[in-house]
């Protein structure tokens, strides 16, 4: 397997004049982009970065973010991208956990970077305007005139490290080798039947495995990555029409927003012939709506993760709604009975269990970054246990039913209920709280907080509390349900599944009235209902 630097050189050799990337008014061919990437490699050298060093990026999808991605592949650096909405303590964690040697950021993340204690000790690459004083601007870093870059590492080197959340809300680093990244991109091309010269809407973030896969896949076919830094429907529709985008690879939430926007009907989307989705389940209604709206030649449900890019593929998603299909090109998949230690103990058709994939697949990672306890939980007998629950039907197709660890996937983002519960529990009116994901056509899962109140409060007040505490907007509950009791097991374990199933007792009218009257009770002196 080629390393990714050599892979990009092959793309330049095959298609030097093909359009490679679009960002606003900037349009670069593969040959021109290679020159820009080479300039960036030289700049990273001047910063003193060496193969194996981590570069943390806090960037939206833009030319500079994609250029840094490829420059790291040539230079042998480990790109470590994080959410551009990250809070200062999350930036601190990524820097310290990865032993990062430099950081790149832009205006949207500048305030958080300035507040990050760990960032102050690093060289900081400021991208674009409005970033304040970084160590060096990206324009200076990538000043023209460098010698053509040559790959410095092989296929076994680490390409990047993504972070994925766990039940404790402490992110886990997922290091991925060049060969696994390229194998995943090749499979992505094959499984989505991409042809030479495709154009994709580059809106899935480059800190997310879907965004990275789109970027690399386009390079393999001489295709174009059309940057959309932050999703907005009018901007997406404008780019689809103007750039003649041929394929979309999005989370269901973004599809929902596209087809339900008033501008959709008047936009020429005929160039889009292939649809793919991942990151969350898609409702039957949305599947039908998209099929009607686009009449795609191919509609792919991709089920996978940061750790092992492809688990399963359903290339005709609308025909069998809810089915994640069967194992992808580079893996084996099975459903193991819940709690089973032996991966050979396969669940019967229709029996819900934990979904496991072979750990030696070409797309697979080999273990979490400095998290042996996470490795011990995830790997058993040569198989990677996904933490997802599901079953195989009589045809052998996989259906995903939820998460073993109750992670909420909303709008394609992993959200830990523990973090939200911790935040809400600090409000003086909250006696107990449990957060779950309930089905939602737009978001996939709607973050819902079930709250047992000490005294009167309401959703807006709790939202204000969460915002003041620094909880990011995508983690805010979208609904609050006030209950008489939070369901628990005899040993006091929270029973989230009962909440999801509707097996809870809501506050009575009398309780609500009593707590509303007690709303003015001072903190620390709750009034009994």
Automatic annotation (TrEMBL):
Gene Ontology terms for molecular function: acid-thiol ligase activity
Regions of compositional bias (Low complexity) in chain numbering: 519-529
InterPro entries per record: AMP-bd_C (IPR025110), AMP-bd_C_sf (IPR045851), AMP-dep_synth/lig_dom (IPR000873), ANL_N_sf (IPR042099), ATP-dep_AMP-bd_enzyme (IPR050237)
Segments for region (Disordered): 507-529
Keyword Transferase annotated: no
Keywords: Ligase
Residue ranges constituting the AMP-dependent synthetase/ligase domain according to the UniProt record: 11-369
A Pfam family reported for this protein in Swiss-Prot or TrEMBL: AMP-binding
UniProt protein name: Long-chain-fatty-acid--CoA ligase FadD13
Source species of the chain: Methylobacterium hispanicum
């Amino acid at each position: 397997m080629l390393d990714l630097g050599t892979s990009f050189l092959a793309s330049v050799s095959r298609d030097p004049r093909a359009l490679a990337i679009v960002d606003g008014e900037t349009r670069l061919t593969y040959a021109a982009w290679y020159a820009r990437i080479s300039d960036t490699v030289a700049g990273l050298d001047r910063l003193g970065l060496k193969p194996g060093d981590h570069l943390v990026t806090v960037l939206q999808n833009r030319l500079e973010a994609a250029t840094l991605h490829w420059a790291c592949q040539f230079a042998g650096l480990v790109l470590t991208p994080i959410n551009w909405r990250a809070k200062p303590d999350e930036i601190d964690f990524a820097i310290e956990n990865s032993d990062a040697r430099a950081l790149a950021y832009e205006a949207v993340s500048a305030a958080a970077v300035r507040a990050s204690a760990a960032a102050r000790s690093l060289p900081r690459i400021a991208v674009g305007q409005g970033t304040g004083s970084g160590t060096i601007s990206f324009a200076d870093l990538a000043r023209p005139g460098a010698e053509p870059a040559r790959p410095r590492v092989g296929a076994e080197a680490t390409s990047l490290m993504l972070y994925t959340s766990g039940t404790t809300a402490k992110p886990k680093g997922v290091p991925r080798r060049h060969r696994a990244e390229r194998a995943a991109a090749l499979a992505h091309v094959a499984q989505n039947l991409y042809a030479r010269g495709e154009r994709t809407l580059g809106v899935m973030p480059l800190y997310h495995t879907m965004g990275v896969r789109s970027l690399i896949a386009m390079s393999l076919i001489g295709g174009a990555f059309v940057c959309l830094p932050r999703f907005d429907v009018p901007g997406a529709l404008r780019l689809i029409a103007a750039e003649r985008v041929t394929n979309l690879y999005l989370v269901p939430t973004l599809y929902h927003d596209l087809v339900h926007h008033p501008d959709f009907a008047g936009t020429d989307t005929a160039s889009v012939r292939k649809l793919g989705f991942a990151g969350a389940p898609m409702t039957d209604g949305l599947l039908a709506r998209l099929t009607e709206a686009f009449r795609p030649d191919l509609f792919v449900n991709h089920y996978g993760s940061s750790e092992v890019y492809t688990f399963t593929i359903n290339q005709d998603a609308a025909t069998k709604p809810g089915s994640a299909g069967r194992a992808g090109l580079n893996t084996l998949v099975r459903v193991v009975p819940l709690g089973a230690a032996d991966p050979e103990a396969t669940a019967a058709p229709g029996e819900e269990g934990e979904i496991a994939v072979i750990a030696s697949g070409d797309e697979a990672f080999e273990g979490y970054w400095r998290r042996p306890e996470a490795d011990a939980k995830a790997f058993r007998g040569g198989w990677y246990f996904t933490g997802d629950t599901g079953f195989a039907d009589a045809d052998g197709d996989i259906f995903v039913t939820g998460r073993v660890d109750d992670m909420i996937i909303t709008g394609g983002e992993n959200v830990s209920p523990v973090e939200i519960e911790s935040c809400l529990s600090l409000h003086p009116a909250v006696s107990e709280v449990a957060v779950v994901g309930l089905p939602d056509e737009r978001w996939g899962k709607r973050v819902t907080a079930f709250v047992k109140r000490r005294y009167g409060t309401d959703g807006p007040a709790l939202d204000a509390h969460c915002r003041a505490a620094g909880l990011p907007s995508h983690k805010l509950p979208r609904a609050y349900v006030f209950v008489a009791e939070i369901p628990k097991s005899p040993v006091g374990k929270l029973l989230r599944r009962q909440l999801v199933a509707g097996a809870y007792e809501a506050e009575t009218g009398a309780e609500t009235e009593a707590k509303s009257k007690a709303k003015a009770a001072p903190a620390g002196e709750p009034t009994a209902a």
